[in-house]
Amino acid sequence: MDLRQLRYFVAVAEELHFGRAAERLTMAQPPLSQAIRRLESDLGVELLRRTTRRVDLTDAGRAYLARARRILDEVDGAAHEARRVAAGAVGRLALGCVGSATYSLLPALARGLSRELPGVDFSFRGEMLVPDQAAALRAGGIDLALLRPPVADPALTVLPLRRDRLVVAVPADHALAARRRLRVADLRDADLIVHSADRRSVMYDVVLGLFRDAGVEPRIRHEVGETSTLVTLVAGGLGAAVVPEPVTALALAGVAFRPLVRPAARVDLAVAHRAGRTEPHLTRAVAAVQRIVRAPAAEAPPGG
């Protein structure tokens, strides 16, 4: 099928005049007339009835015009879609968030990504631990992850975003809630709620490292899999927890958040995807995530 012949025929059929059609196509009239003759010869039917005064469509020509328009619309639509894909304007992406990012960043990410990439269909999974995120990235269950390094996996590309302060979540009626800030040593006699060691949580290692460096033996009383459960248990008076500052976005009644100082501990946040992926819509999404997460609003001080 010669698409040029189709375009030539549609122009003549719509103008019903070779001269006007030639002007519309920015070409000379004789080559246009010859192209239509070749098309009719190839098809073995007369599409246009020509007189010295006018051009009319035959019945075959009217039927052919309807199909030709649909074909050209499909071809033009396919070209437009291909250009949008190449520009990263369309596609599907699933993003998995570590627990603390679920509450503080997922709403902003959902709005920001929809605004910046309106043609990309995003889905989100929250409350994922880093090992589960890494496995989902490798298996294709998610395309992007907001996670807490370290991630020692050569199959993944990990790009740093920011460093979050660590804060202490304590029951609002606990004696420690009366203090403006806390040190690890202040938690020496406190029952602790931590993320599960069995599920290889990064925060579990971070918290134990803080206590080890401070020379304090942690009194771990509860291990949980989800950050929301962890903060809920704090609200229930079952213990204190060291968490990234974005967890304060949960703002549960019965919980007070206090900055952790001496040292002012922080934990990294990064965006990751499977190494080697270069699809334009994924590349644009990574850049958008970097802009959204690094926005000044993300650096608000922890609440009480």
UniProtKB/TrEMBL annotation:
It comes from the Bacteria. InterPro entries: LysR_HTH_N (IPR000847), LysR_subst-bd (IPR005119), WH-like_DNA-bd_sf (IPR036388), WH_DNA-bd_sf (IPR036390). Pfam families: HTH_1, LysR_substrate. The keyword Cytoplasm does not apply. Residues 1-58 form the HTH lysR-type domain. Belongs to the LysR transcriptional regulatory family. This is LysR substrate-binding domain-containing protein. It comes from Actinomadura fibrosa.
